[in-house]
Amino acid sequence: MIDAPPWMLVLLGALLFLSALFSASETALFRLRREQIALAGRSAVSLIERPRDLLISVKVGNVLVDIAFFVFAQHALAERPGLGDDLIGGLVSVLAVVVFGDIVPKLVALRAPVFVARIGAPALWLLRQLLGPVRIVLTRLLELVSRALGPLGKSEPGLQSTELYALLERSAERGQLEGEEADLLYEVVELRELRVREIMQPRVDTLFLDASGDNRAEIVARALERRATWVPVVDGTPDQVLGRVRVRDLLTRPDRPVPQLLLPIKFVPEVASCLDLLHVLREERQAEAVVVDEWGGTAGVVEIERVFEEIVGDLRLEDERRWQPVVPLGEGRFRVSGGLSLRDWNEAFGVDLVPSEFETLGGFVTAQLGRVPRPGDAFRFGHLELSVHEVRGRRVLSVDVGLAEPEVVPA
Q: Which residue intervals of 174-259 are DSSP H helices?
C-alpha cells in the first residue's frame, strides 16, 4: 500500500470526489430538458439561467481541483519505494482523474440527469459565488478575445410566431391554404405561446388517491361519475405524487394494494409551452402528466387530449359534454364558470382581461374585488357588468355577465 499520511489519503479522496462531482453536475445540468429544469431544484434553475457563468465556474473549479490532486498524488506516490518514478506517478494520477473524476461521473449523469443535478447544483452554485472575482475577470477576457476574433459564424434564428402568422396569412390570401387548413395551422403555431397552466386541470378539481388506499372507494366512485380513466396516487399530500393508476385496474383488481397498481407519470412545469408538453408526452408514450409550480408543488394535471382540443376543438362525445363554461341566460346575459381561462374569455367576449398573477375568470374577479368574493358582489369592467353567482369557500364557481347599464351623466 502507499506509504502516505492518512490525512493525505483523505485529501486525495476528497479532491477526486470534487472532480467527479463537478464533472457529473456539469453534464447533468446541460443535459436537462426544458421540462426537467424545475424538477432539479432552485439552485439548478439559477445556474442554467446563466450558462456562461456556470461553464466558467465549473471549468475553473475542475482545473484547480485536478491540479491539487496531481500535486498531492505525485507526492504520495513518490514516498512508495518502486513507484518514485515521475512518469509512473503521473500516469497513475492521470488515469485516476480521467476514469473516476470524469468518465464514470459523466456516464452516471447521462443516465440520471435530474438526480445528479439536484445533488450537484448546490455545490456548483456555491462554487460560482466563491469564484465571483475570477469569473468576472475571465468573462471580460473572453469578451475581448471574441471581439478580436470576430463572429465565427452565426446560426440563423428560428422563425418567430409573428413571422409564422404572417406567412400563414399570405398563404391563405393567395389561395394556397383552405380556410380550415389555415385555422388548424394557426392553432398549432399558437401552441408555442400557450402555457401548460392555461389548459391544465387545477389541483382543486383533481382527484387524488392515497397510496394507503384509505380513500379508494370514494375516489373510484367519483372517478366513475366524472368518467375519469386515471387518477394520480399521492403519499399523504397532493404535493407528494408517486405515480398514477388506471381506474379500470382499481375496479378489476380490488384485492391488489394501490402500490402494486402504480404506473409512472411525467412531471412538467406549469410555465412550459404546450408544444413542449406535446413533445414530452410523445417521447415518453404517456397521455397525462402532473403539472408542478415553481416551488415543486403540484399545481394540477394535464392530458394530451387537452392539447389536441386546442388544435381541433372539443374531442368529447356528445353525452360527455356536461361542463359548459358559458351558459346563455337570455336577454344578453351569460353564466360563466369561474374556472374559464382568460384566454378563452377573451375569445368569447372580445373584452381583453390581461392575465398577470391570475389565469382564470375567478382569479380576475377576486383581484378586482380585493377580497374573498361573496354571492351578489358585482362590478363593472368596460361595457360589461360582472356579478358573482356562486362561491365555494374562497373559490368563485360561477359569474353572471351582461351588458352594463349606461351611466347617466348629470346635466
A: 179-190, 216-226, 247-252
Residues 6 or more apart whose Cβ sits within 8 Å of residue 114: 28, 32, 36, 39, 40
Residue 246's SS3 state is: strand
Pull the grid cell for residue 65: 481541483
Q: What is the rounded distance in angstroms from the CA atom of residue 165 to the CA atom of residue 47?
A: 34
The angle, 0 to 180 degrees and rounded to 10, between the axes of the packed helices 104-111 and 113-130 is 120
Asked if residues 39 and 119 have their Cβ atoms less than 8 Å apart, the reply is no
pLDDT score recorded for residue 4: 64
H or E element that contains 103: none
More confident residue, 27 or 193: 27
3-state secondary structure 147-200: HHHCCCCCCCCCCCHHHHHHHHHHHHHCCCCCHHHHHHHHHHHHCCCCEHHHCC
Residue with the three cell numbers 388506471: 246
Q: Which residues fall within 8 angstroms of residue 83, CB to CB, at 6 or more apart?
A: 2, 77, 89, 92
pLDDT at position 225:
85
* Rounded distance between C-alpha atoms, residue 30 and residue 134, angstroms: 22
Residues comprising the chain, all counted: 411
- Contact criterion met (CB below 8 Å) for 206 and 301: yes
Q: Which of 98, 97, 103, 99 is nearest to 70 (CA)?
A: 97
Cell numbers of 205, please?
Answer: 378539481
CA atoms within 13 Å, Cβ hemisphere of 281: 23
Q: Nine-digit cell at 378?
A: 358585482
Determine the distance from the C-alpha atom of residue 152 to the mean position of all C-alpha atoms in its chain, rounded to a whole number. 33
The three-state secondary structure class of 293 is: coil
Name beta bridge partners: 337: 398
Percent of the chain with pLDDT over 70: 74
Angstrom distance (rounded) from CA 287 to CA 275: 14
The region that residue 8 occupies, defined by phi over 0 for left and psi between -120 and 50 for alpha, beta otherwise, is: alpha
Sole residue written with cell 399570405: 170
- Residue 249 sits at φ, ψ, to 5 deg, of -70, -35
> The sheet that has 384-392: what strands, in order across it?
326-330, 333-337, 395-403, 384-392, 378-381
Bigger pLDDT: 352 or 140? 140
